[in-house]
Structure formats: C-alpha cells, structure tokens
Amino acid sequence: MSKGERRVYQGVARGQPFEIEVDGEKIVAYEGESIGAALLAAGRRTLRYTNKLEQPRGLYCGIGLCQECRMTINGIPNTQACQTLATPGCRIETQKSFKNRES
Amino acid sequence: MKVCDFIIIGGGPGGIAAAIKAAQAGVNVTLLDENERLGGQVFRQLEKGFKVADPDALGPDFKEGKELLHQFYSMQDKIRYLNNTLVWGISEDHTLALARNESSSSLGFKHLLVATGAYDRPVPFPGWTLPGVFTAGGAQKLVKSEGVLPGQNILLAGTGPLQLVLADQILKAGGRIEAILEAGNIGKNWLRGLKGIWGNWDFLKEGMRYLRSIQKAGVPLLRSHVILEARGDGHVEEALIAKVDKNWRPRLNTARSVKADSICLGYGLVSSTELAMLAECEHKYDLRQGGYIPRRKANMETSMPGIYAVGDGAGVAGRKVAIEEGCIAGISVASALGSIPRANAREQIKPCRKRLDKINRFRKILDDISLPRKGLYELATDRTVICRCEEVTLGQLKAALADDTIQIKDLKRMTRLGMGPCEGRMCGPFVVEMLRHRPNAPVEDVGCLKPRPSIKPVALGVLAAEKPVENTEA
C-alpha cells in the first residue's frame, strides 16, 4: 500500500470510478461507496463544524445513528454522509456552524 | 390501512431467522429493514459494485450470514420484504409509522417482532469527538464493505472479542495497527470459565485464530489498558494511554503517548430499544446485557401481548443467540396464529433452547471480562462534551446535579441533554451509568432518556407525503 492510501486494493474489485465535488474540490469515488467513505479515502476527515463550540466532527458511528457526519449534499443540509451513496457529479459541502452559514 | 399478521422490524440474524421459521409454518410475514441490503450489522453484505477475491477474509460470520440469507431469498415468495424502510413510531393500536423512499405510511400488525440490534457503547473521554475517532462497528463497516481503512496508523481501544475481529480484518486489508488496548484482564479470568468453554469449541477456535493473526503481525495486545485522551489539531494525531487497576481506574504514572491518526472504540454494545420502549414494553436495566432491555417470557414475548423482541436489541449476546431466539419467536408466533399446533411448536423450540443454553455458558465468561467497570465512566473531564448533538459538557451536567433526587429526565430539561438528532443514543448510556454511580442515589430512580417519535430524524416533506406502503417503491 502506498503512503497516504486508505483504499484497500488487494483482493478487492470495485465498480466504476467517478468524480464528486467537495467544497469545490474534485475527488474520486467508486460505485457503492458512501460519501463518508469516499471523503475519508481522500483524506478529508472533518465533515461539519458544531453550532455552539464550532468544533470539527467527522465519521464516528458510521452506521447512521450518531448524526455527526451531517453535511450539505446536493443542496440538502443535514444529510448523513455515512448513509448516502456517492453518485457521479454529486456536490457536497462541509456543514458550517450556524454563525458561519450564509443563509 | 392494511393489517399484517406478523411484522418483523430488523433484517439482522434474529429477524431473518424468525422470518424463515414463521414463513415455513405458513405465516404471512412482512420484514421491514432500514438498510438497502439485508443482513444487519453482523451479516452486512458488500455494497453494489464491490467484490472480494477471498470471502473467507471477511470472517466466518460473513459465510454464516450468506447461508442464512440464501435460505431467506429462497423463500422470498412467502415473505414480504421491504428495504430502505424506517419504522419511526408505534402507536397503542398496533400501528407502525414508516418512512420509505421520501414518503410515509402506516401499517397495522397482529404480531410484531422487534429485532433492532445494538450499537457500540459510547464512552466519553477528552478528545473523543475529534475526527479520526470511530466506533469499532463503524470502522468494521468501512473496512469490510467499503474497502477503506479508517487511517494509516490505527489504535484500537475497548474490550471483548469484537475488537479482535476488527483487528483481524484491518490486518487482512493491509492496514497498520499501533496497538490493541483491552481494558479487561483477559489472562486472569480466562481459566475460571473452563466449564463454559466445554463444547463451545468453534467460539474458542475463532478467538484463537484472531489472537494468532494479531501476534503474527507483531501488534501489541495490551491487557488492562485504556485510552485516556485523544489529541490533535483538528483531528486525531496521538493518544494518551495508561494501565488500569481491576476497577479500570487508570494508574496515571503509567500514562504514555502513542502516535495514531485514528482510534477505533469497541467497549461492547448497547441495545437499541427505542421501538420496544415506544411500544411501552416493560424494560429492566442490566449493564451486562447492554443497558435497558425489554423483559421477556421464554417465548420471547415482551410485557405487551403480541409484541416480541429478540437478538442484541433485547440483550446483547451476539449473532448465534440472535438466530436461536429468532427461531423461537418465529415458531411461537406461528403457534399463536394457529398456523402450527402447540405441541408441534414445543417440539421445534426444544433444540433451539438447548443450543441457546450452551452458547450462554460461554457468553458468561466473555461478559465477565468485558463488563464495563466504574473507572471507564470517570475518564471524561468537566470540559468533555457528553451530548454530542446539543454540546452539553460534563461540567454542565454536574452543575445541574443539585441533589441526589435529580433523574436523567431532569437533566434533559435543564441542559438539553439528549434532545438533538441522535435522540440520546450517544449520551444516554453514559449518563445512566454516571447517575447510578452516585453514592447515595437509589439506582431505580435514575430513569432513562425516553425515546420519542420519530426515533430518527424524518423530514417534514416525507411526513407530508403520505401514501399506502404498496406505493412507496423507489
């Protein structure tokens, strides 16, 4: 495994790769990957900032319970990155604290 | 509204086993599962597009699950299975509230089986909210079904056999583990349980295989160790670890730092009882079995007639117990509906019960080692966030604890504890234990964070789009 690589390739066959966009940056995702997994593989661990303390949060429970991975996905806020499959061209934004949101 | 003879909530091992048994007896079964794919957490299937060269590398549970799933699919014409279906409420008149593919519906039942599983026990400590801290279950899903490692140098901390399973999977995937911290003292307790090991050789063999794989990779397995703190600028960069005494209280003179970019926490599981509680089934508190769990009769029926509960959601005991309990519940419901004669049901249940007894002997040894000790609930400091959603710190909770009569529901009112979107799942289990450890407070007055519908966030647009469940296909 090369340095910095988080995807496992040995013995794993994946579907088609495609691009998704995170905060304006293009990264690669594969068919069947959750957005949370694709972001983690790209080295992006902070998915949102909390409202009161403005602390960074990332994937925690990974199974749709803790709500820590809430991001704005295709314009819809509070969408769980761990439960949403990546699709070609989907647009994702890190969810900001209330204070730092534009609208 | 349609009324079903038998609805099962949860497509893990318990729910699937119950569905198969009941359908075999001729019952009209409806199985509702929240996920895209059947299997629950333990029998989770690979995501679409993924294939693995060596399915054995995914562990014996994957193979076992495949066989059970195969049996289920072969009976699909007899079982109505709805995926992507969230059950978010239950009302007194035996009606379920569902959300499915952006619309909502209701469904009535005569008999109901709640097989909602469990999740990793949340244990707060300084830095546990940093990105890079995962639950063992979450990390397992990433590695097993999405082929992504949680980090490049991984630290495992927790207790019990599940973290050995995770370690084995990370190593097989080519990941690097810095160390595995086991809070319990495995060596000391292991021999005491010889009687329980007798006849449970496959469990033992499985465990030994994991230990060998960990040893072969040169990963240190540190017994009687916990993580005290996760540190880093914006994400995990290092962990502070220490040796603990028999109450799992850290010996601070043994504290040292370990470099790690990710931490996986596996302190056992707690039962998901939200739906059983909404259904007003009577619950009891048993830390060993996963916190609050529904009281059940031998046929798996709860205190509410016609409502059954099996598997980890009714007491954490693993996939094998879930399957046996699921079989018993499926047969019992078939008998209650008159699909099979009572005597026939009794005969069918006998071997299940026998296997259950054998497994439970072994479980007891594991539970003795892994039962969370007091010290685990003393790691958080006043600044540690306990309620992740509402950002309530331990200091704020302590300030609200004016006297020993304060119950968890008072804390909720005073601090907004448990009122965020996770609905108290991440803070509740810790706060209950924290309150139970107060020296003068009577334990039965602690209470719990009562779940409210919807038990998971549901968008208003989904609630407004009501249609019959038949019309909710994507």
In terms of per-residue confidence, which ranges of chain A show pLDDT below 50 for 5 or more consecutive residues? none
Named at the architecture level, the CATH assignment of the largest domain in chain B is 3-Layer(bba) Sandwich
What is the CATH third-level topology name of chain A? Answer: Ubiquitin-like (UB roll)
Query: Can you identify the CATH class of the largest domain in chain B?
Result: Alpha Beta
Average pLDDT reading of chain B: 92
N-to-C terminal Cα separation of chain A, in Å? Answer: 43 Å
Anisotropy-based shape of chain A? globular
Could you give me the name of the CATH homologous superfamily of chain A? Answer: 2Fe-2S iron-sulphur cluster binding domain, sarcosine oxidase, alpha subunit, N-terminal domain
State the total count of DSSP E strands of chain B.
Answer: 22
What is the helix content of chain B? 25-40%
Query: Secondary-structure element order of chain A, as H and E?
Result: EEEHEEEEE
Low-confidence stretches of chain B: none
Cα shape of chain B: globular
Give the DSSP E fraction of chain A (strand runs of 2 or more residues): 25-35%
What does the main sheet of chain A amount to?
Answer: 5 strands, mixed
Write structural notes for this entry.
The complex is a heterodimer of chains A (103) and B (474). The mean pLDDT of chain A is 92. Helices cover 7% and strands 29% of the residues of chain A. The longest helix of chain A is centred in the middle third of the chain and has 7 residues. Chain A has one domain: 2Fe-2S iron-sulphur cluster binding domain, sarcosine oxidase, alpha subunit, N-terminal domain (Ubiquitin-like (UB roll)), CATH 3.10.20. The radius of gyration of chain A is 14 Å and the shape is globular. Chain A has 103 residues and is mainly beta. Chain B has 474 residues and is α/β, with parallel strands linked by helices. Chain B has three domains: 188 residues, FAD/NAD(P)-binding domain; 146 residues, FAD/NAD(P)-binding domain (3-Layer(bba) Sandwich), CATH 3.50.50.60; 66 residues, no CATH class. In chain B, helix 1 runs parallel beside helix 2, helix 3 runs parallel beside helix 4 and helix 4 packs across helix 7. In chain B, the strands form six sheets. In chain B, strands 1, 2, 4, 5, 6, 7 and 20 form a seven-stranded mixed sheet that branches. At the A-B interface, strand 1, helix 1 and strand 5 of A face strand 3, strand 9 and helix 3 of B.
